[in-house]
Input
Amino acid sequence: MSARTTPTNIFQIDERMLGVDWEDGHRCAYPVRFLRLACTCAGCVHEWTGEKILAENSVPPDVHPLDVETVGRYGVRIHWSDGHSTGIYTFDHLRALCEKAELERKS
Output
C-alpha cells in the first residue's frame, strides 16, 4: 500500500459527509449515502458476477454512519444506520471513490 492510499484521519464532517485525510496531503469529502451505495460486500455486489445487487431505493436518504472502525491496516468497516455493517471499504477503494465523490457533490 502506498502513502497515497493510507489515511491519516477519518472524520465526520457533518451528518451527510464523511472526510478522509490521506498521507499524501489530499483530503476527500464523501457524501455518506454515496459511500453506503458503494459498498462492495457480498450482500451488495454479486460475488461471482460483480453485478450490483443493492437496490438504490432500499437505502434511506438519511442513512448515516453510526461507527467507523479500522480493519487491519487496509480498510474500514462502517456501521450504518440502516443496519448494514458487513462491508469493508479498503483504503484503495476509498481513495478510488474520492474523484467520484467529488463529482457526486457537484451534481
